[in-house]
Amino acid sequence: MADAAAEHGWLQAGRVGRPHGLDGSFLVAEANPVLVRAARQVRVAGAERAIERVAGHDGRLILRIEGCEDREAAEALRGEVLRVAREHAPVLDEDEWWAEDLEGLVVRDGERTVGTVSRLLALPSCEVLEVQRAGGGEPLLVPLVSDAVRLVDLEQRTIDVDLHFLGEV
Asked: Which residues 6+ apart lie within 8 Å of 2 measured at CB?
């Protein structure tokens, strides 16, 4: 579910990965390259820190941040979530959403409640919503494709899906 930082205007841009070199740089695990490259600062371990360097490519981003001066400091932050202020995020197209905006939404097929979005997963072929079913059991994976998702309504906090397309009826 979305945590307090996300609810207060911060978007997850990745996690601190393993150190890279001796100067405090580290690899960004689970990186959202668009957010990382758009930011001037990140929030990590409860503190806002300026980005001093972004290097590498979208599949292997390397970051150095203020206050992280050596390999040991980078290792101490390993696993911490990196967040970027929503105000620095690029504007999304009409059919695009940030994961934090989808988490917690009620999933329905018409009037039938299916469950609640627990998270967005990036799979090799497409992104999918992991939906915790209202009646319990294994989560339902809903690909973010127009055949499966009819409507995302952020104001109503609902997503309308086609269970027939998903093979669930």
From this structure: 100, 103, 104
**Rounded to whole angstroms, how far apart are CA atoms 15 and 82?**
5
Provide the residue type at 110 as one letter: G
- The CATH number of the domain holding residue 59 is 2.40.30.60
pLDDT tens, 69-121?
Answer: 999 999 999 999 999 999 988 888 888 888 888 999 999 999 999 999 999 88
Q: What is the DSSP letter of 27?
A: E
Q: For 35-39, which contacts have Cβ atoms below 8 Å and span 24 or more sequence positions? A: 35/11, 35/84, 35/89, 36/61, 36/63, 36/82, 36/84, 38/84, 38/88, 38/89, 38/90, 39/13, 39/84, 39/85, 39/88
Residue 167 lies in a domain: no
Q: Inform me whether the pLDDT recorded for 155 exceeds 70.
A: yes
Residue that is last in its domain, among 88, 121, 139: 88
